[in-house]
Amino acid sequence: MNLRKQKKKLARAFAHEIFQGRTRSGLTQQSVADRVFISLRWYQKIEKGEVLPSFVVGIYLMRLF
Fold first, then answer.
1. Per-residue CA distances from 57 to 1, 16, 32, 51 (Å)
2. What does residue 26 show for φ and ψ, rounded to 5 degrees?
3. pTM for this structure?
4. pLDDT tens for each residue of 24-38
5. CB-CB contact of 47 with 53 (8 Å)
6. How far apart are CA 24 and CA 22, in angstroms?
């Protein structure tokens, strides 16, 4: 598997976990974005699996959920 495919697979897996954590905790996308200091649109891209978060944002998200 090439690097691009691995990155997309990782982004989708991370997105799934973030979505599950957010819905379990009853938070809105906006409230999560506010808590991790990013824009709503950027958070939506992360949750859709379109992008991977930066290291710091990833840590914030993991700690939140």
1. 26, 16, 11, 12
2. 75, 20
3. 0.90
4. 999 999 999 999 999
5. no
6. 6
